[in-house]
Specification:
This protein folds into two domains: 167 residues, Alpha-Beta Complex (Quinone Oxidoreductase, Chain A, domain 1), CATH 3.90.180.10; 138 residues, Rossmann fold (3-Layer(aba) Sandwich). It is 28% helix and 26% strand. The structure holds nicotinamide-adenine-dinucleotide (NAD), ligand 572 and zinc ion (ZN). Zinc ion (ZN) binds next to loops.
Length: 360
């Protein structure tokens, strides 16, 4: 096995370095993974630019990256579900498995969750990384490593659509056409939504959404009032949406989501921005519009994998840029500034397609 363990370590704001780290030693329930592909998420960029998200503050250097896939290089003595050579997607958070929330099946809400690249825990943009085997998902031969990495944001979309009870004939409003809005669009389609309007402040992003199959797109002006935005949405959709999924993380979009949703409908808030926002609670209560949160995902990885493996969702079209791990700085610049229309930027720890057994 190679001795080299080149790793992308964030030392502080605007201080991302490539350095050698020891190859991890695994315990009985873990696997050692030779990493292949790692996507850049908005939260990785946020730690680079701010060193914190909310009360998750970096107090020591942190390995970045949590959207990932790799090849099993070693298995612990208790591992039964994987063997050396298996190609796996890595669900980047694992819970305590003992608390009430874990026992109730809501492990995403576990207070002791270890989550990659969320302080104080390291991520996995590195050549060798260890992870509990039961949070690794074996990829079928025809699913690429890049698709494996993309199961992470896709799982957020799956969780959001499940929280919104999207189903056959749903009329869905999605606010925000960033990577999370776009994966939510793909999942909503696959779950049977027949009308999907997606909004953004940037036309290029809406053009992508249209190509992915949004039935309507709407370019909003950030200076417009929530009431005006609601009117525009109602003018475009045949009926008020029965589901709204806010993938922005700004107060206006959540307000618009509530105002726009049909009485008795569901608003799901995925975007996380300021901790305190002003929302039209009376309007929501008096019209029985349910407001629901989304915290990552829970038992959604296998669903996301099934969507990709069965060809129900074409997730790879979200990847606009590819970089080698040695070009990590450039990859982050591209993602951060949206250079060249960047949506999802993929970092290759191994040369691209090295671990895909079939030609694609
Ligand atoms: P992003 O910044 O790339 O995308 C957000 C999009 O919303 C942008 O295209 C932006 O132009 C658009 N936008 C901003 N204000 C708008 C408005 N008023 N109306 C319409 N569009 C508007 O981010 P992303 O990676 O797509 O993630 C979206 C959000 O989801 C972020 O807040 C992120 O932190 C959050 N997130 C939450 C979870 C969770 O578990 N809840 C998981 C992943 C991401
Ligand atoms: O892919 C997981 C993920 N989660 C995000 C953002 C990006 N990617 N979330 C938004 C920030 N929160 S948090 O609670 N936190 C930093 C732990 O504010 C988690 C979910
Ligand atoms: Zn993420």
């Amino acid at each position: 096995m190679a001795k080299d363990n080149l790793t992308a370590v964030l030392h502080g704001i605007e201080d991302l370095r490539l350095e050698q780290r020891p190859i991890p030693t695994i315990s009985d329930d873990e696997v050692l993974i030779s990493m292949d592909s790692v996507g850049i998420c908005g939260s990785d960029v946020h730690y680079l630019t701010h060193g914190r998200i909310g009360h998750f503050v970096m107090t020591k250097p942190m390995i970045i990256g949590h959207e990932s896939a790799g090849v099993v290089a070693k298995v612990g003595s208790n591992v039964r579900n994987l063997v050396v050579g298996d190609r796996v997607a890595i669900e980047p958070g694992y819970p305590c498995a003992k608390c009430v929330l874990c026992k109730e099946g809501k492990y995403n809400l576990c207070a002791d969750m270890v989550f990659c690249a969320t302080p104080p825990y390291d991520g996995n943009l590195t050549r060798y990384y260890k992870h509990p085997a039961n949070f690794c998902f074996k990829l079928p031969d025809h699913v690429t490593m890049e698709e494996g990495a993309l199961l992470e944001p896709l799982s957020v979309g799956v969780h959001a659509c499940r929280r919104a009870n999207v189903g056959l004939g749903s009329k869905v409003l999605i606010l925000g056409a960033g990577p999370i809005g776009l994966v939510t669009l793909l999942v909503a389609q696959s779950m049977g939504a027949t009308e999907i309007l997606i909004t953004d402040l940037v036309q290029d992003r809406l053009d992508v959404a249209k190509k992915l199959g949004a039935t309507h797109t709407l370019l909003l002006n950030r200076n417009d009032s929530a009431e005006k935005m609601q009117q525009l949405i109602h003018d475009i959709m045949s009926e008020a949406p029965d589901r709204a999924i806010d993938c922005c993380g700004v107060e206006t979009s959540t307000r618009v989501a509530i105002f726009s949703t049909r009485s008795g409908g569901i608003v799901v808030v995925v975007g996380m921005g300021a901790p305190d926002v002003k929302l039209p609670l009376f309007d929501a209560l008096a019209r029985e519009v349910d407001i629901r949160g989304v915290f990552r995902y829970c038992n959604d990885y296998s669903r996301a994998l099934a969507l990709v493996a069965k060809g129900k969702v074409n997730i790879k079209q979200l990847v606009t840029h590819h970089f080698d791990i040695k070009e990590t700085a450039k990859a982050f610049e591209t993602s951060r500034y949206g250079l060249g229309g960047a949506i999802k930027v993929m970092i290759h720890v191994q040369p691209r397609n090295t671990n895909n057994p079939v030609k694609f």
